[in-house]
UniProtKB/TrEMBL annotation, chains A, B:
GO terms for molecular function: DNA-binding transcription factor activity; transcription cis-regulatory region binding. CDD domains: HTH_LacI (cd01392), PBP1_LacI_sugar_binding-like (cd06267). Pfam families: LacI, Peripla_BP_3. Residues 323-342 are annotated as: Disordered. Residues 1-53 form the HTH lacI-type domain. This is LacI family transcriptional regulator. PROSITE patterns: HTH_LACI_2 (PS50932). Residues 328-342 have a biased composition (Pro residues). It comes from Streptomyces qaidamensis. Keywords: DNA-binding, Transcription, Transcription regulation.
Length: 342, 342
DNA sequence: TTGAAAGCGCTAACAA
DNA sequence: TTGTTAGCGCTTTCAA
């Protein structure tokens, strides 16, 4: 910066003021400084700047992975609003327990970011408490933490509507396939199951635990086992509500391999509306991670500007059912022996 | 840090030495300092540290998007090696031309990162030159830039082997479906087409431009048009090599909707081995973005430590064909009128 | 093995 | 409107 100042024949303060766009610089001087900065390819050191301002112009995110549709899409949405605000994005990827422990022990984001967005973790109270004394706004995404700003999709309503869609088609035996082992995502998982149960209760149907099975996400083998359990029931389901599209697709795969027609003999509903849902023409509950990322980013920015505001703001985003071709009315019941035809 | 020093009854220099793991600290003092740091939840300000060391312990990446399988997986691999090295990861998402121009104009990474990884862009010479005087190592990923460190998959060989697989099955009319409009990814795109042509040339087959069609990635409609053009040829293909799995899936979708059997009447090969390839049981050329990310990260770290080394290192990663159920020998040719049977 | 002091590159308060 | 000066929180000589 001293170089720029010298070349423009001004002091470093003036260079600083010019480069930050402060209005207290005369046009001629501004022009000279900008010219000099361009010629010298000068870029302000954010480090030096934040040392004195205390603001880093950097937002940190904590994510379990980068390689999922949800995370990729959400972070793209977030990145857009941060870029527009001139903020940078630092990503902490915490795939397992060891890394998680290390992160919470050292909290490396401390003093190195202006805000932290925590995605899709099911935090312990202790971990939440650690984040509380981080001295920066923390926004919880895809989870709700009481008394802290959170952005999430209405999983309960989504599952409720998806299940209702099946009920409205006439299904009475509806299974729920949840994911297991997807530690960190268990939050949405719980909520969706609640919505499913709520729909059944509404319809006056009993909750049959045999109809709730689990499988690791995206695993053909596990899905086959889960479907196998359902098909082996005394009274098997005529429809399946899957916690995620990937699970729905695995279920459909298994059913088709067994020559069980979808939706002829079994209807399937997913949750997400990932690209794969289109390829399978899957009826699904759509959510918009990109919107989630965007809203979370905007909330974080507003908290940075005014740490008092919206401290307890919960933003609940909507979902909507997209009917496609994997749902239909249940097959006609088999002739029931005890009732003579006509 | 002053607080920690006071609490431990030492100078800030000693705290600094302790926290950086320097060996010139006596065990008792080290214990006291670590204790104090823990009690005060102290984390070093990277900003202040880098101001004096000149190293930021931060690696920047430039990516066109975060919401693709390739990027998500590659960045996960990269994040792993960076975390192990105690480096942080800053992501610049540059989805369009406007953002790209802005990035290259200001080069915000300058002085704010120790290295830059540029993913999947087809850079102009001018842009490359800009990056050259960034005063930090720049690693090019998924592209080769002469004389600069690059990490990429052997797209030519991949497409060559994929096409050969079709040739070996007996196919002679093989179409190539490329993506268009996916600006920034055009590099791999070109290379794969080269591999395809090479395979045909090897087999002594003519290059028929009618067999090369384009479609926007992941677009059902566009794929239908492209497939339509192929099916309308005087001599339609019996197999399709698709530049990416997503395109292959769209092609299969269209074919099946038209009651053209895959692989009975048309074989299809993809490139990537994304999860969707499994769901479609797609024969494909597999690459490992996670490995790419990892290697790129390691290369960047080594360049940071020793800017002289490996300055021109090109790391070319292998691919392999995964045969699944979308490829088979071509259908028996129709009876040819001019030859009497037997 | 430890401490004192200088200074990294910037911004902010104050003076001019 | 501009310049001078102090100091942000560290690391790094250099001296002890």
């Amino acid at each position: 910066m001293a170089d720029v100042a010298e070349r423009a024949g001004v002091s470093t303060s003036t260079v600083s003021r010019t480069l930050r766009g402060l209005s207290t610089v005369s046009p001629e001087v501004r022009a000279r400084v900008e010219q000099a900065a361009r010629e010298l390819d000068f870029a302000v050191s954010r480090h030096a700047a934040s040392l004195v301002t205390g603001r880093t112009r950097n937002v940190a995110v904590l994510v379990p992975t980068l390689s999922s549709w949800f995370m990729g899409t959400a972070l793209s949405g977030l990145a857009r609003v941060l870029r527009a605000a001139g903020m940078e994005l630092t990503v902490y990827v915490i795939p397992g327990m060891a890394e998680r422990t290390a992160f919470f022990e050292h909290l490396p984001a401390r003093r190195n970011a202006d805000a932290l967005l925590v995605f899709s973790f099911d935090l312990t109270d202790e971990e939440t408490a650690r984040l509380d004394d981080l001295a920066m706004p923390v926004v919880y995404v895809s989870q709700h933490v009481d008394g802290r700003p959170s952005v999430y999709v209405d999983d309960v309503a989504g599952a409720l509507h998806g299940t209702r869609h099946l009920l409205n088609l006439g299904h009475r035996r509806i299974a729920y396939v949840r994911t297991e082992g997807a530690c960190g995502f268990s939050f949405s998982s719980q909520e969706r199951l609640v919505g499913y149960r709520q729909a059944l209760a509404e319809a006056g149907l009993p909750l049959d635990d045999d109809l709730v099975v689990a499988t690791p996400a995206g695993d053909k083998r596990g899905a086959a086992e889960a479907v196998g359990r359902l098909l082996g029931l005394r009274e098997p389901p005529t429809a399946v509500f899957a916690e995620q599209d990937e699970v729905a697709v695995a279920v459909i795969w298994t059913l088709r391999a067994t020559r069980i027609e979808v939706p002829g003999q079994m209807s399937v509903v997913g949750f997400d509306d990932q690209p794969v849902a289109q390829w399978f023409d899957l009826t699904t509950v759509a959510q918009s991670p990109s919107r989630i990322g965007q809203e979370a980013g905007e909330l974080a920015l507003s908290l940075i500007d005014d740490p008092g505001a919206e401290r307890e703001r919960h933003l609940v985003l909507p979902t909507h059912v997209i009917p496609r071709t994997t749902t239909a009315p249940p097959p006609a019941p088999r002739a029931e022996p005890q009732l003579p035809p006509d």
